[in-house]
Design brief:
heterodimer, A: about 500 residues, alpha/beta, Amidase signature (AS) enzymes, eleven-stranded mixed β-sheet, 11 strands, B: about 475 residues, alpha+beta, Arc Repressor Mutant, subunit A, 3 domains, nine-stranded mixed β-sheet, three-stranded antiparallel β-sheet, 15 helices, 16 strands, about 40% helix, elongated
């Protein structure tokens, strides 16, 4: 009701053109490029598009729960502003495009929870660099998307704000931790979204929800203003309806940020420019450790067909090996949790966030954190604290760092022989809500194919490649050389041109 | 049984940079609480540290001045613990691979040969904030956190356990204090905590090879307290052992009011800091070129300068030491020598008249109203015989008060020295006539009376008569 009233009050402002009937334009399924051309040719206004998507959000949120916070006031105001820009001839690709971002990105003046109770009332005084870059190009913010608490989870069941449901089958998880970001794209609740990926948190939900998700190379996109989970692994990336949109968002957010010492100061290519160069002669590696016996038959079949498609397009396949793959999950859960145990120490109730009533300082710390953090977050803080503690540090943290180096070396070696690698994103399609929540180890294994990429620090993309017998989307993963996002985008684009998987829509 | 104390010091040096170590906030002391903060030093979610280059330059200078090697690739680490003044729940510090390692300082204690004290390491870190208890405006009996100081740059200088007495410890501290203030990287203010010290103290039976269990004494904030705290702690440990007890590893706090140390926390209660490399900061790479550039920029250190004053300027050790008491004093002296030429004469004046005037007016040398070139000008008037050395002191006082040049003062007050023989002879004749009795005494062999006549002549000439002319004429006349 509040949303409807707001839209009406906006439409009543005399300065606005009359909103046209846009019901035949299918705004909610448009890509960035499609909407951009509609905006530029004045077939649509940003306000019309924004209203259409806000209405869609209102209609499907009860079923999907992609959002933690919807920001209609800000969205309508930015859309109006974008329309003025477009009218005065200042229109870039993102001007007036309604986007939504994971609730891990700080947004000045807009509540940012990171999916946690402990930040339930946290209104940040500054914004993340990656969001600022989109905003400065005229993008319209629809709201903040649901996620596993502090990005710890593979199913979105670890959010303090309820589980997001998979738009293809609402009894299934959307994947995680950027589950809201994937579901919103799939359910027509945003033209594109931003997520973050620490162990697969962009690629796995993209695969489960049938959208494109890119994890750039570590250091390619600024982490400033992104709530840290595991600082040496976290990376920001786009989640979109097609590869061209993915390139467009990466064009906007990539680059050195003086506020992030780990962002890399090197030239950023024009990712959109080289998309159409094809894959003829491209050397694609198939790591044998990723095509295991336990792979779901539908996933197996999807991979086989994808390989066939690439062969037809002229790519060459090479069998390769990444021998330390088996150790990746264990290594990840030592390094990521160690960093997390330290990164999450600042949530102590002293300066911001949830503070419990208590009689003394120690009790205040203990109660605030006990009440504010969920089970999975507590589990990882304990794991990480243990891995770093005196007497165990060498056996766990140091050892894990050494194995990480071995895993990185596996990748470096393989990339001497191949241009990209093709693998499954996840061993199975989306599983049922509740299926793995009480078995953390099974849950951790759902990231088995995505985690090594974060440990190696390189880039990878998930794109729609087929469907299971039950009609659930299945993605394929293209892994690229460090800072060579161009090649995986080009390979993804070629696949997309040759298939129609990305055009299928969830019926919700 | 006799005991050998063993002492090691950990000194925190607050660096005099304009901005903090990991953000652009001001480091100015005494501002409104929490007015000099930003997302980074407040430890807000999503904020990331960016290293201040100036801090690295200061650390390199400190390392080079204490004979350390500069680590080509040093690492920042997180030291994890909870306290309300520590916004992130960890302090960014260095653990493995600190920026400076394996240095030493020469210390001199009166009556002892100079001694080499090892420096284990110097590392960079951020300071914590400050807690304010009670009497807070608006918060009743609560405690407040002021994060203006959070993220202020510090160097921690860790010595080897090479010190054996409280005097050696104080000498080491003074030497280090001299270096960091000399380099201009620390204001050296111990009361405001810009230079603070923790002392590790243990005792072992003389002749033993095995070090005793140590106690760490926290925050001893003056040279005097360091001496007191160490002496108290040594005696406490000896008494404990003599009484059949054992020293336990613990952290102790020095109470300046009682002069005693008391237990703060035992080893069992000590934090497990869970150090690990900070993933938000990349390794700090310092190439040889950077080190050499810093070496070129180093001011001459007190030790070397002192030796040069002895070898090249011919000063006695005492003078060289006093004049190297601070870098500005030594600079003043050298500017004076450059303008005048006679090092010993300038030294006498700087250590004499200048120091007295500074003490009397309570100012320090950098605010001296008489510049080194003005001092040289004054001394040149003495050299030329324009004024006497005695009159020069009068002129100096006037220069100090009025800021006028010595030439102007001499002219204005008619202070030019009288060397004209006939004028002085006239005065001598008058004095001799008026004091016939003393003339007789002198001639009768009582030569001590000579001084009386010199005094009378100088008095009559209002100090302007040239003393050597007076001496020569007087002796001739008296001997008749």
């Amino acid at each position: 009701m509040r949303l409807a009233a707001l839209i009406i009050s906006f439409l009543c402002q005399k300065s606005l053109n009359k909103v046209r009937d846009t019901s035949n334009m299918n705004i909610i399924e448009m890509t960035i490029h499609e909407l951009h051309s509609a905006l530029k040719s004045k077939k649509l206004s940003s306000l019309e598009a924004t209203i259409a998507i806000l209405e869609r959000i209102k209609a499907v949120e009860p079923k999907v729960s992609s959002f933690i916070t919807v920001t209609p006031e800000q969205a309508l105001a930015s859309a109006k502003n974008a329309d003025e820009q477009i009218a005065s001839g200042h229109c870039n690709l993102l001007t007036g495009i309604p986007l939504a971002i994971k609730d891990i990105f700080l947004t000045e003046g807009i509540r940012t929870t990171c999916g946690s109770r402990i930040l339930e009332n946290f209104i940040p005084p500054y914004s993340a660099t990656s969001w600022e870059k989109l905003r400065d190009r005229g993008a319209v913010l629809l709201g903040k998307l649901n996620q596993d608490e502090f990005a710890m989870g593979s199913s979105n069941e670890c959010s303090a704000y309820g589980v997001t449901r998979n738009p293809w089958d609402t009894t299934c998880i959307p994947g995680g931790s950027s589950g809201g970001s994937a579901a919103a794209v799939a359910a027509g609740e945003a033209i594109a979204t931003l997520g973050t990926d620490t162990g697969g948190s962009i690629r796995q939900p993209a695969s489960h929800c049938g959208c494109v998700g890119l994890k750039p190379t570590y250091g390619r996109v600024s982490r400033y203003g992104v709530i840290a989970y595991a600082s040496s692994l976290d990376q920001v990336g786009p989640m979109t309806r097609d590869v061209a949109d993915c390139a467009a968002i990466l064009d906007a957010i990539a680059g050195y940020d003086p506020k992030d010492s780990t962002s890399v100061n090197m030239p950023v290519p024009d990712y959109s420019a080289s998309l159409k160069e094809g894959v003829k002669g491209l050397k694609i590696g198939l790591p044998k450790e990723y095509f295991i016996d336990g792979l779901d038959p539908d996933v197996q079949k999807t991979m086989t067909e994808a390989i066939e498609t690439y062969r037809r397009l002229g790519a060459e396949f090479i069998d390769i090996s990444l021998p330390h793959t088996d150790y990746a999950v264990a290594t990840y859960y030592l390094i990521a949790t160690a960093e997390a145990s330290s990164n999450l120490a600042r949530y102590d109730g002293v300066r911001f966030g949830h503070r419990a009533e208590a009689g003394n300082l120690l009790e205040m710390y203990t109660k605030s954190r006990s009440e504010g953090f969920g089970t999975e977050v507590k589990r990882r803080i304990m794991l990480g604290t243990y891995a770093l503690s005196s007497g165990y540090y060498d056996a766990y943290y140091v050892k894990a760092q050494k194995v990480r180096t071995l895993i990185m070396n596996d990748f470096i070696k393989v990339f001497n022989d191949v241009d990209v690698m093709l693998t499954p994103v996840a061993p199975t399609p989306a599983f049922k809500i509740g299926e793995k929540i009480n078995d953390p180890l099974q849950m951790y294994l759902s990231d088995i194919f995505t985690i090594p990429v974060n440990l190696a620090g390189t880039c990878a993309m998930s794109l729609p490649a087929g469907f299971s017998a039950n009609g659930l989307p299945i993605g394929l993963q293209l892994i690229g050389k460090p800072f060579d996002e161009e090649t995986i985008l080009r390979a993804g684009y070629a696949f997309e041109q040759a298939t129609e998987w990305h055009t299928r829509k969830a019926s919700i | 049984m006799k005991y050998q104390p063993v002492i090691g010091l950990e000194v925190h040096v607050q660096l005099k940079t304009d901005t903090k170590i990991f953000c652009g906030c001001s480091t100015q002391f005494g501002a409104e609480p929490n007015s000099q903060t930003c997302p980074v030093c407040l430890g807000l979610p999503g904020a990331l540290p960016v290293l201040n280059k100036k801090v690295v330059e200061f650390a390199i200078k400190a390392g080079l001045s204490t004979n350390c090697s500069i680590t080509p690739r040093s690492i920042f680490a997180r030291k994890n613990y909870f306290y309300p003044d520590l916004p992130k729940g960890y302090q960014i510090s260095q653990f493995e691979d600190p920026i400076c390692q394996h240095g030493w300082l020469d210390i001199k204690v009166e009556g002892q040969e100079p001694k080499k004290i090892g420096i284990t390491r110097i590392h960079m870190e951020e300071d914590a904030g400050k807690l304010v208890h009670g009497e807070l405006s608006g918060s009743g009996d609560g405690s407040g956190v002021d994060l203006n100081r959070a993220c202020t740059p510090l160097l921690e200088v860790v010595s080897e356990p090479d010190l054996r007495t409280s005097d050696e410890a104080v000498s080491y501290l003074k030497q280090l204090h001299g270096i960091v203030t000399w380099l201009g990287i620390c204001d050296g203010n111990m009361e405001e905590g810009s230079f603070r010290c923790d002392a590790n103290v243990s005792v072992m039976p003389i002749g033993s090879e095995k070090l005793g269990t140590r106690a760490e004494i926290k925050n001893v904030n003056s040279f005097k307290f360091v001496k007191q705290a160490i002496e108290y702690e040594i005696q406490r440990q000896i008494d404990l052992i003599e009484d059949g007890g054992t020293v336990i590893q613990e952290t102790r706090l020095f109470d300046p009011n009682s002069g005693k140390t008391r237990s703060m926390r035992s080893k069992e209660e000590a934090h497990d800091y869970r150090y690990f490399p900070d993933p938000d900061l990349v390794p700090l790479v310092i190439n040889q070129e950077w080190v050499e550039r810093s070496r070129q920029e180093l001011p001459e250190l007190p030790d070397k300068r002192q030796q040069r004053f002895i070898d090249e300027l011919g000063l006695p050790l005492y003078d060289a030491e006093v004049l190297n008491g601070s870098r500005v004093l030594a600079d003043y002296f050298e500017a004076g020598v450059a303008a005048h030429g006679n090092a010993k004469l300038v030294a006498n004046w700087v250590m004499g008249e200048i120091t007295r005037a500074l003490n009397d007016s309570g100012t320090s040398i950098e605010f001296s109203p008489v510049t080194p070139s003005q001092l040289a000008e004054l001394l040149k008037l003495v050299d030329k015989g324009t004024i006497s050395g005695k009159i020069a002191k009068t002129v100096f006082d006037e220069m100090w008060k009025s800021g006028k040049t010595p030439g102007a003062i001499v002219e204005e007050h008619g202070l030019v020295q009288v060397s004209d023989c006939s004028a002085i002879e006239g005065i001598i004749d008058e004095i001799m006539a008026a004091n016939a009795g003393q003339v007789e005494e002198f001639r009768g062999g009582k030569e001590k009376v000579f001084g009386f006549f010199v005094g009378q002549v100088m008095k009559a000439s209002k100090g302007k008569a040239n003393p050597s002319v007076v001496n020569e004429l007087l002796i001739n006349k008296l001997k008749g």
